[in-house]
Amino acid sequence: MTIIARFNDNRLGVVQGDVIKDVTSVLDALPACRYPLPSHDIFIAALPELRGAIDAAAAKAQGIPVAGVTFLSPVANPGKLVAAPVNYLKHLEEAQADPAIHYQSQVATIHRAGLFLKATSSLVGSSHGIEVAMPDRRTDHEIELAAIIGKRAKNVSRENALDYVAAYSLGLDITIRGPEERSLRKSLDTYSVLGPWMVTADEIPDPGNLDFSLEINGEVRQRANTRDLILSVGELIELASRFYELQPGDIIYTGTPEGVAPILPGDKLHASIERVGEFNVEVRAA
Ligand code: MN
After folding, report:
1. Domain ends where: 39, 68, 97?
2. Which of 2, 101, 143, 252 has its CA 20 to 30 A from that of 277?
3. Residue 107 pLDDT
4. How remote is the CA of residue 133 from the centroid of ligand 1, in Å?
């Protein structure tokens, strides 16, 4: 039903076509927090009860052209960035075949490797851009469908798992290739991009059939469909929730297909996922 964005100076907005409606006033209804702060995102937790107020505020607001807006990460305070390694078969094959990707490490299937975590401090919105921190090492793009958890999930079955998704977004899991643990190589500042907004889950009844693509400087590098996920969104939530409680605002990066390739300062990325959204991201030196 709704496309929700954080924009400019921490404004909350609803995107309608090529304009955004400022609905920041609804945030006044959020609980006042004192130290220690909760480990989940309080806006995502409150989203079900705020939906009516968001719609009402959007109906009254003036539209601001989307073209002039700075998009922040649609989730402000995720407790966890969960990510799926090698969750597309053709990416598994390219990773196993290419020493510049696997670095003498055995690339295990996701059934064996499970999931990993990216530091929440690596998260930026699409307008921020990616800052390549180690120009002497290969840094790759990975486009991924991202699922945003809406309510506490523990030991959830795949059949019910999508009930726990609040929204979907477009993610980039930026990665330095090398011998270190994934969580280190994928947690540099700006290496988790999310945006430009989130689309509430009722808009996307089947996250397992979405076309998506990533271009660098106008050249298509990755093009796939989420039907080729090895573990579906529901199966990823089932797996994750067996190991830890998923909380409102936790973000699941669902994995990338084949075509990963280096990015360099000066590159311009264009990423899009059907029904979810699209963004341009600039790459610069840190
Ligand atoms: Mn990835």
Report:
1. 68
2. 101
3. 84
4. 18
Vertex 157 angle, CA 156 and 159, to 5° = 130
Q: What is the distance in A from the centroid of ligand 1 to the CA of 14?
A: 28
Q: For residue 1, what pLDDT band results from cuts at 50, 70 and 90?
A: low
The CA 271 to ligand 1 mean position distance, Å, reads 15
- Tell me which residue has tokens 């469909």: 225
- Note whether 43 and 133 are same-domain residues: no
pLDDT digits 0-9 by tens, 74-101? 999 999 999 999 999 999 899 899 998 8
Ligand 1 centre and the CA of 140: distance in Å?
10
Centre of ligand 1 to C-alpha 163, Å, is: 24
Model confidence pLDDT, tens digit, residues 192-230:
999 999 999 999 999 999 999 999 999 999 999 999 999
For 142, 189, 195, the CA distances from 7, given in Å and listed in that order, are 24, 20, 10
Residue 27 belongs to a domain: yes
Instruction: Tell me how far the alpha carbon of residue 256 lies from the centroid of ligand 1, in angstroms.
Output: 5
Cis peptide before 196 (omega within 30 of 0): yes
CATH value at residue 85: 3.90.850.10
Contacts of 35 (CB under 8 A, 6+ apart): none
Q: Which pair of tokens denotes residue 215?
A: 């271009």
| CA 152–ligand 1 middle distance (angstroms) | 24
DSSP states of 260-283:
--B--TT-EEEEEETTTEEEEEEE
pTM (2 d.p.):
0.97
CA of 9 from ligand 1 middle (Å) equals 29
251-253/192-200 β-pairing: unpaired
- Over the stretch 225-277, which tens digit does the pLDDT of each residue have? 999 999 999 999 999 999 999 999 999 999 999 999 999 999 999 999 999 99
